[in-house]
UniProtKB/TrEMBL annotation:
GO terms for biological process: aspartate metabolic process; tricarboxylic acid cycle. PROSITE patterns: FUMARATE_LYASES. Residues 5-281 form the Fumarate lyase N-terminal domain. One of its GO terms (molecular function) is aspartate ammonia-lyase activity. The keyword NAD does not apply. Signal peptide: none annotated. This is Aspartate ammonia-lyase. It comes from Robertmurraya siralis. It comes from the Bacteria. Transmembrane segments: none annotated. One of its GO terms (cellular component) is cytosol. Residues 360-387 form a coiled coil.
Length: 398
C-alpha cells in the first residue's frame, strides 16, 4: 500500500513484502524471541517483527540500501492499531476455519443421536433423584440445542472481530497518515481474505478497549459451561458398567487403569472437561486484563491475544475429538433404561390428577416401604383402572 501511495520505492517495498511472506511461512521463527508476557501493549512483539523483516529485506536487496524497521517496515502504522487489528483478524479466521465447523459437526452428531434415541424411554432425574419419565433422545436434543445456540452467538461475535482499527495509528487520530490509506488497506484486506473487514464504529473505542476478544471469550466461557454440563451428564449416564446407571455405553479408546485390568474410563469426556475448565480460567484472565485499559490503550494486549487465540485452538481441537471419538459411538442400553424407569416411583406424579395429591403420595411411600413396583401395589389395592393405568404409562407422559 505504501508503494501505491508513493511512500516506498517499488524495490524496497517488494523486498519488504517478500520478507514478510517468508515470515508468514515460518522460515524465520527462531528469530522471534519476545515472550508473550511483555511490556508495551505489543510494542516489543511488533518491533521484533519489524526488525526481522527489515534485516531480511535488506538481504534480499543485496544490501544496496538498508531497510529501517521503523521508517520503512513500520511505515503508516503503529503497534497500537496493528496489534489489536491482527488479533481480530486471527480470531475471525480461527473461529471460521476451526471452531464453527467443529461446533456444527458436534451439533449434527448430537442431533443425530437425539433422533436415534427418541424411542428409548428412561427415568428423568432432578437433584440426582428419580423424576418423571422422559426419552433419552429428549436429553440429547437439549445438548444439541445448547451447542446450536452458542454457535449462533459466535457467528454474531464475528461482527465485532470484523472491525479493524488500521489507520488509527497511535491513538486513533491517524497522525502522519494519508487520508486514503485506511480505505485502501481495508479494501485490500477484504480482497485477500474474502471477509467483510471494516472500520470500527468508533475508532477511539476500538483503541481504548479490547471489546472483540473479551466478548468472544465470554461466549467461549458459555460454551465451556454447556459442554462441561453435557460431558458430566454423559459420564454419569455411562457410569458402572455393573454398579452405576449404565444407561449408555461410551466407545472405548484406551485402557483405563494401570492396576485394574479391563477397566475403561471415559477418557475423551474427561479430556474435554479439562479443556473447558482451562477456557473458563482463560476467560477470567482476559476479562481481568480488559479492566487494565487506561485512557487510549490497553497495555495487556499480548496476554489477551495469546489467551484468546489459544482458547479457540484448544476448544476446537477438544470438540473435534469429542465428536469423532465419543459422541458418534455412544449406544443406548435400552434394557437398563427400562429397568430404572420401571423401578422408579416418580410415576406416582401421574396419579395426582386421578386420586389426589395426598393419596398419590401415600401410595408412593407405601410402594417404597414395601419395595414394590407402583403398578403392582395399585393392582393389590384394586385401584388400577383404565384411567389410572393410562396415568402411569410412561409413553403417555413423555
Amino acid at each position: 500500500m505504501n508503494i501505491e501511495l508513493g511512500k516506498l520505492s517499488p524495490e524496497m517495498g517488494n523486498a519488504i513484502i517478500e520478507a514478510a511472506e517468508e515470515v508468514m511461512e515460518g522460515l524465520w521463527d527462531s528469530h522471534f524471541v519476545v515472550d508473550v508476557y511483555q511490556a508495551g501493549a505489543g510494542t516489543s512483539q511488533n518491533m521484533n517483527t519489524n526488525e526481522v523483516i527489515a534485516n531480511r529485506a535488506t538481504e534480499i536487496m543485496g544490501a544496496s540500501e538498508k531497510v529501517h524497521p521503523n521508517d520503512h517496515v513500520n511505515m503508516s502504522q503503529s503497534t497500537n492499531d496493528t496489534f489489536p487489528s491482527s488479533v481480530n483478524m486471527a480470531g475471525a479466521d480461527m473461529i471460521i476455519a476451526k471452531l464453527l465447523p467443529a461446533l456444527e459437526k458436534l451439533e449434527q452428531s448430537l442431533q443425530k443421536k437425539a433422533e436415534q434415541f427418541m424411542p428409548v424411554l428412561k427415568s428423568g432425574r432432578t437433584h440426582l433423584h428419580d423424576a418423571v419419565p422422559m426419552r433419552l433422545g429428549q436429553e440429547f436434543s437439549g445438548y444439541a440445542e445448547s451447542v446450536r445456540a452458542v454457535r449462533r452467538q459466535l457467528q454474531n461475535n464475528l461482527e465485532l472481530l470484523y472491525q479493524l482499527g488500521l489507520g488509527g495509528n497511535a491513538i486513533g487520530t491517524s497522525i502522519n497518515l494519508e487520508a486514503e490509506y485506511t480505505a485502501k488497506i481495508l479494501k485490500e484486506i477484504r480482497k485477500r481474505t474474502n471477509l467483510p473487514f471494516c472500520q470500527p464504529v468508533n475508532i477511539f473505542a476500538f483503541m481504548q478497549n479490547m471489546s472483540a476478544p473479551i466478548r468472544c471469550m465470554m461466549t467461549l466461557k458459555e460454551l465451556a459451561v454447556h459442554v462441561i454440563k453435557m460431558t458430566s451428564d454423559l459420564r454419569l449416564l455411562s457410569s458402572g458398567p455393573r454398579t452405576g446407571l449404565a444407561e449408555i455405553t461410551l466407545p472405548s479408546v484406551q485402557p483405563g487403569s494401570t492396576i485394574m485390568p479391563g477397566k475403561v474410563n471415559p477418557a475423551i469426556l474427561e479430556m474435554t472437561h479439562m479443556v473447558c475448565c482451562q477456557v473458563i480460567g482463560y476467560e477470567t484472565a482476559v476479562s481481568t486484563a480488559g479492566t487494565a485499559g487506561q485512557l487510549e490503550i490497553n497495555v495487556m494486549m499480548p496476554m489477551i491475544a495469546y489467551t484468546f487465540l489459544h482458547s479457540i485452538e484448544i476448544m476446537s481441537n477438544a470438540l473435534q475429538t469429542l465428536e469423532a471419538k465419543c459422541i458418534n459411538g455412544i449406544q443406548a442400553n435400552e434394557e437398563q433404561c427400562q429397568k430404572w424407569m420401571e423401578e422408579s416411583l416418580a410415576l406416582v406424579t401421574g396419579l395426582s390428577s386421578k386420586l389426589g395429591y395426598d393419596m398419590a403420595s401415600e401410595i408412593g411411600m407405601q410402594a417404597d416401604e414395601q419395595n414394590k413396583k407402583l403398578k403392582d401395589l395399585l393392582q393389590e389395592k384394586e385401584l388400577l383402572t383404565d384411567d389410572v393405568r393410562h396415568a402411569i404409562d410412561p409413553k403417555g407422559v413423555v
